[in-house]
Design a protein that fits this description.
Layout (H helix, E strand, L loop, with lengths): L15 H10 L5 H11 L14 H10 L5 E8 L5 E8 L4 E9 L2 E5 L3 E3 L14 E4 L2 H16 L7 E4 L9 H12 L11 E5 L3 H10 L4 E5 L5 H7 L8 H15 L3 E7 L7 H11 L4 E7 L13 H13 L4 E3 L26
Parallel strand pairs: 4-7, 7-8, 8-9, 9-10, 10-11, 11-12
Antiparallel strand pairs: 1-2, 2-3, 3-4, 5-6
């Protein structure tokens, strides 16, 4: 497939106010901006000629001013249970990302990428082993959502939840991530409530503080995975810069500022962090925090040394936490057969190299 050339600015990169300024320069009335906004984010139009409520002169201006696509669906995989769809999206500069649609009863949840690759280097994560390529723009983050929204629209369905847990560290691309959420949250457009978003971070302390100070209603999930600095640093190199105590201090700050609960994600790895003693250490660490733990039995990656524990061991870990006063859920695994689960997203020509 040929590369997509982005010769004009991507329309999804612009806020409503920015579009008003552009339309003013184009000598177009302000009410047209609202029509444009609703066409993009409610009708889900992605071509200038779909805006039949515009005169042809304005449709021509749109065509000559903006690009309406910056990525091409190059490969689509569906899980055997038909509940998960993973899409490889080729970007205009030849790089690629993956995004996932997951169906849970009445929920239609998207797992969206914020970067091509990732700089965090977590050893159990396929994306982390790709290395960092570049940040996505706000528009590129939004475009993933709109891609799936159009697919769901064909079946009379809509996106109900968005998790920024795909490729990349969202807080490493903070401004673009927040701009994308602002646009998708806008009541006059896509209108997805703030509490329908979840941001997952490995624990970039300054950005968590910034996020707390903004007092958003967006859900926060933190990848913890180990209860001691020695062990966590082996899995997550970021722990050397922001050790557990520093991370938990900013978590307390976040809870005090927002009165919102934090989810701590725990990739359960057989022989590493799945035993009762570790669960007890974790419970002691989190004692008194408004939080819960989301246990995720490790999904298979190219690292043969890391495996998920048995179902029985997973339940024992959960019960140990709950018996020690920490609420805990076990995440339902989806899309494992198409490598669409947590930690599995990667572009195949960048194989993992850092194994333990």
């Amino acid at each position: 497939m040929e590369d997509l050339k982005l010769s004009l600015p991507l329309i999804f990169d612009f806020s409503f106010g920015q579009l008003e300024a552009i339309f003013s320069d184009l000598n177009e009335p302000k009410f047209r901006v609202k029509q444009l906004w609703q066409g993009i984010y409610i009708q889900l139009w992605n071509k200038p000629d779909q805006f039949t409520n515009f005169p042809k002169t304005l449709r021509d201006k749109l065509f000559n001013t903006f690009s309406f696509d910056s990525m091409i669906p190059e490969k689509i995989l569906q899980s055997s249970d038909h509940e998960t769809v993973k899409t490889l999206l080729k970007l205009y500069d030849g790089r690629a990302i993956e995004a996932v649609l997951m169906k849970y009863d009445q929920r239609r949840t998207l797992c969206i990428s914020t970067q091509a690759g990732c700089a965090m280097g977590c050893v159990f994560c396929a994306t982390g082993q790709m290395g960092f390529q570049r940040n996505l723009t706000a528009g590129e983050i939004i475009e993933q959502v709109l891609h799936y929204a159009r697919l769901l629209q064909q079946d009379g369905e809509r996106v109900t939840n968005i998790v920024l847990m795909g490729m990349g560290e969202p807080f490493h691309n903070y401004e673009s991530t927040m701009q994308a959420i602002n646009t998708l949250n806008d009541a006059d457009g896509f209108n997805l409530g703030a509490r329908r978003f979840t941001i997952s971070t490995v624990g970039l302390v300054p950005m968590i503080k910034k996020f707390a100070d903004e007092n958003r209603q967006v859900n926060l999930a933190i990848s913890l995975h180990e209860a001691t600095d020695e062990e966590r640093s082996k899995l997550l190199p970021v722990n050397k810069k922001y050790p557990i105590r520093t991370l938990l201090d900013v978590c307390r700050y976040y809870i005090e500022k927002t009165n919102r609960r934090i989810t701590f994600e725990w990739a359960l790895i057989a022989g590493y962090n799945d035993d009762v003693d570790t669960a007890k250490k974790l419970a002691e660490l989190l004692k008194g925090l408004l939080c819960h733990v989301n246990v995720i039995p490790l999904n298979p990656t190219a690292n043969p040394n890391l495996k998920a524990p048995t179902k029985e061991q997973t339940i024992i870990f959960q019960q140990t936490l709950e018996n020690n006063g920490i609420p805990c859920t076990i995440r339902l695994r989806r899309g494992i057969d198409i490598q669409a689960g947590c930690g599995q997203l990667a572009i195949k020509h960048n194989p993992p190299t850092n194994m333990i």
